[in-house]
Amino acid sequence: MTETILVVNAGSSSIKFQLFEVGAYDQLERRFKGQIEGIGTRPHLLARNIQGETLVDETWPGAEVRDAPAALDKVIAFLRRQIGGSLPNAIGHRVVHGGPDYSEPTIISGVVLDRLERFVPLAPLHQPNNLAPIRAILERQPRLLQVACFDTAFHRGHPEVADRFAIPEPLYAEGVRRYGFHGLSYEYISQRLGEVAPEIAKGRVVVAHLGSGASMCALSAGKSLESTMGFTALDGLPMGTRPGQLDAGVVLYLISEKGMTAKAIERFLYNDCGLKGLSGISNDVRELLASSDPSAKLALDYFVYRIALFTGMLAAAMSGIDGFVFTGGIGENAPTIRAAVIECLSWLGLELASKANATSELKISRKRSRVACYVIPTDEELMIATHALHVLRQHASAQLEESRA
Asked: Which pLDDT belongs to residue 399?
């Protein structure tokens, strides 16, 4: 029977999924992808195969799919129809925060799940939604192998000086430190560089993962050396609705002068700031690019400016820079933003090939550019499937050893 790996990325009102088939020599082949969205309001399940053909397109009343477990039931029923009534051999989940405890893909158990719940306050937009389908599957299919793949794990090899805040040691010991996020994306880019850009793959590369959530990473010889995000996914670059780097005194001001509670500040920082807050128009870069409003221009100029500033910081962490990579929804699809960033980085010797940039080609820097620049689509799902398969193989090997003992 053909082995399959299911990848799940759960959000607040949607569950995205992809199914991979395990081929010869453990090569992974994507069979289809889809999502169920509008959970609790207008649930809609849509999935297509790799040829783009629709495999399922169903809707239900909100009361029938009111939460993540009910949505997961619909997804699993669809999967069973697609793979002959069976379940996948393993499920890989994106989990945003692994905290200080988890630095590699981990088999989910009740104990692990309880530990991951502790990090909900550090990623309130993501962690509860990531964990909800995991708990539902654990309760209904406890023997099904589930693997948590953490967005923080790729950054766990940072030198201590990069991970620290200038705060007392006891807080660091209990986990108040800089973690970094989007690690699954950076890990994929690191591996992909060896195939598409071998001349910089072992050098000093700044990767900009630009999307609704945005961050940057310094890759030195393929390893994460520094990141713009820290303790939570609020730090670093401005994002769709998050402010990015912010003086802690602003939070004290909101408490003392505005009378805001911790919960109100959390909602404010995660939902009302960033490009949305600056522009007063939208958190969507496409809408801001299409707008003639000066506030839209301000928001985009600020976004570009901060990307350029953090590039200098990351280059300093590596004592130089050999390459720059754009990835993520904005990085892959917004030539105007890329051109503006590269213009700000011309002092580094980075020169844009305008035609290549306009058509989003792989390499968008000129031949004479001292710093090579690439646009590389990320594939976090493939990274998760790869990790889940590796853990599945290790688990099977351990079970075999136990049976022989």
From this structure: 84
| Burial group, residue 108, by CB count within 10 angstroms (0-12, 13-18, 19+) | buried
Domain boundaries, the chain: 4-150, 183-380
Judged on CB neighbours under 10 Å (0-12, 13-18, 19+), 333 is middle
Looking at residue 85, its pLDDT comes to 87
Angle at 397 between CA 3 and CA 24, to 5 degrees: 35
Do the first three CATH levels of 4-150 and 183-380 match, i.e. the same topology? yes
Cα four-point dihedral sign 232, 380, 11, 41: positive
Distance between CA atoms of residues 368 and 215, nearest Å: 28
Torsions phi, psi of 57, nearest 5? Answer: -150, 90
Residue 22, beta-bridge partner list: 28
Which residue(s) pair with 36 in the sheet? Answer: 15, 45
299, 288 in Cβ contact below 8 A? yes
Has domain 183-380 been given CATH number 3.40.50.2300?
A: no
Q: Which amino acid is at 247?
A: D
Contact present, 146 and 198 (Cβ < 8 Å): no
DSSP 167-192: S-HHHHHTT-S---S-HHHHHHHHHH
CATH code 3.30.420.40 for 4-150: yes
Determine whether 151 is an active site residue. yes
Residue 171: the pLDDT is: 96
Q: Decide the pairing of beta strands 372-375 and 323-327.
A: parallel
Give the span between the Cα atoms of 261 and 166, in whole angstroms. 25
Residue 362 is predicted with a pLDDT of 98
- Which residues of the chain register pLDDT less than 70? none
The pLDDT of residue 1: 74
Phi, psi of 143 (to 5 degrees): -90, -10
Spatial separation of the C-alpha atoms in residues 128 and 107, rounded to whole Å: 18
Nearest 5°: CA angle at 349, between 348 and 351?
A: 125
β partners of residue 54: 48
Residue 308, exposed/middle/buried by CB under 10 A (0-12, 13-18, 19+)? middle
Instruction: Please tell me which residue in 67, 73, 114, 151 is annotated as part of the active site.
Output: 151
